Amino acid sequence: MEDRVYDCIIIGAGPGGLQAAIYLGRYNRDVLLLDRSGGRTWHARHIENVLTHREISGSEIIERGMEQARRFNVRIEQTLVVSLRKDRLFIVSTADNLYRSRYVIAASGVYDILPPIKNTYRYLGTGYFTCVDCDGYKTTNKRLVVMGDHIEAINIALAMKQMFTKDITFIPYQFSLPDSAEEVLEEEGIRVETVEPVKLIGEPKLKALELKNGERIACDAIMASFGTKLNDGFLIDLSLKKDAVGFKYAVNSQYESSLRGLYIVGPLNTGQDQVVIAAGEGAVAAIDINKRLLEENYAGEEQLLESGSHKS
């Protein structure tokens, strides 16, 4: 274990973690940023909804953010955090080291669950999308397939038709579509295909989705909904408060969790999953942590002054 006690350790160098690191670094706080690399933002190829950027890749956001954080003396280590506990201080464990800090920001994000359909990863972010808010616009007036493994995917198909394109085929992936839902889709002019998809086809752009029976659906884009998994293995022993379904973490208005001193920003919490929103949450958390550090240091100085006056 290092003798050093950080003001804050940030876990995850996505938009939320990096924005928090930049703010705390600018307050001249002692900050350590631990990142496993290769997160969800890193794989985003064309982000169009970030202010002042007509288009920017997720990897460019991360690389620029790291460079900016280092300018403010934030220490960045590429490593996987395996556990987190709190005694008087937070103890953050990696495979090789133990680190201590007064505060922790968890910003390790989520990852998309991808179905076992061949070539899915090849088109991820160019023809295969998983977020309506991020990438729905890219399907405007295109031939679109919407698919998912749960009934809520129907709402995505209906929303996509209202906002972006009329040419939609819906595929209920390995679940039975209720008759009432099929009727709604038919009324909206959305085709339903129940044969399981097995392969994405096209070079260099997506052109079709091949089905198990050999047939092909011509398409320019796919909007898929198979859910996400949290990168939260290091949090599982802390008994933190979660949402009503026990999936994401509950936080207050400053993004502090049910454990005092632990902040959770980005898609781990119950808010919206967007680059700009995660960055905003990181800023709010950092400002609150700095305020708390000021208050704690001021209280400590007052105690020293009181102790000295009693002695005199």
Catalogue the unreliable spans.
Answer: none
Assigned CATH class of the largest domain? Alpha Beta
The pLDDT mean sits at 93
End-to-end distance: 39 Å
Task: Indicate the CATH architecture of the largest domain.
Answer: 3-Layer(bba) Sandwich
Q: What is the fold named in CATH at topology level of the largest domain?
A: FAD/NAD(P)-binding domain
User: Radius of gyration, Cα only, in angstroms?
Assistant: 23 Å
Strand content: 15-25%
Structural write-up:
- The chain folds into two domains: 5-111 and 228-310, FAD/NAD(P)-binding domain (3-Layer(bba) Sandwich); 121-225, FAD/NAD(P)-binding domain (3-Layer(bba) Sandwich).
- The relative contact order is 0.17.
- 28% of the residues lie in helices and 24% in strands.
- Helix 1 runs parallel beside helix 2 (58-71) and helix 1 runs parallel beside helix 6 (275-311).
- The chain has six helices and 17 strands.
- The mean pLDDT is 93.
- The strands form four sheets. Strands 1, 2, 3, 4, 5, 6 and 17 form a seven-stranded mixed β-sheet that branches. Strands 8-15-9-10-11 form a five-stranded parallel β-sheet, with helices on one face.
- The chain is α/β, with parallel strands linked by helices and 312 residues long.
- Strand 12 (197-201) and strand 13 (208-211) form a beta hairpin.
